[in-house]
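Subject: Sanity check before I submit

Could someone independently write out the structure tokens for this chain? I want to compare against mine line by line before I put it in a report. The sequence has 186 residues.
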Amino acid sequence: MTDIFNLTQDFDFEDPIKSLRTFYNMDDTVFLISNFLKNNIDSKCLVLCIGTDRYIGDCLGPLVGTNLEKMNLPHPVFGTLENPIHAVNLKKQLAYIEYTYPNYKVIALDACLGAEENIGCIQLRHGCLHPGKGVGKNLPSVGDISIVGIVDSCDHEEFFFLHNIRLNLITKMADAMAKGIYEGLK
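---
Independent answer below. Compare away.
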């Protein structure tokens, strides 16, 4: 679970090339995500989907990774439901990726906590994300482009793994994110 994005510091709403904020259920979400990636990825890249399938709220990343594999994305995808990348194996996977894919841009994706009114929001920006920070873990930062999906309110952070996050929300967010990424990178 990635840190909470502070919109006043991380997002430049005047320049949609640097950052993007949309909701999974908006009609233009897939277009906005794909357009952002088309405008910001001009070299070799890979997609790193962080999370675990052991908790509904944290399975957003692996679900997106699985969807991208099913779509046959023509770029490497790491982190699926079958082979998730999470706190236990993140450092080892990052070392493998750096060795195997030098000079690739990394599009890092994770679930995130945020304000209650932002649940369902998908945010993209230049720069790394900080996996685990939202739930108090100290893991390496990762990514040249960050994509996060706000799956729950930070008001419930201490109860995150017990909170009632709907699988329906996660699957719909994952579908929109995967379609946008696929269209932007195909």
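---
OP: Matches mine. For the report I'm noting this point. The beta strands are 19-23, 45-49, 77-78, 105-114, 121-126, 145-153.
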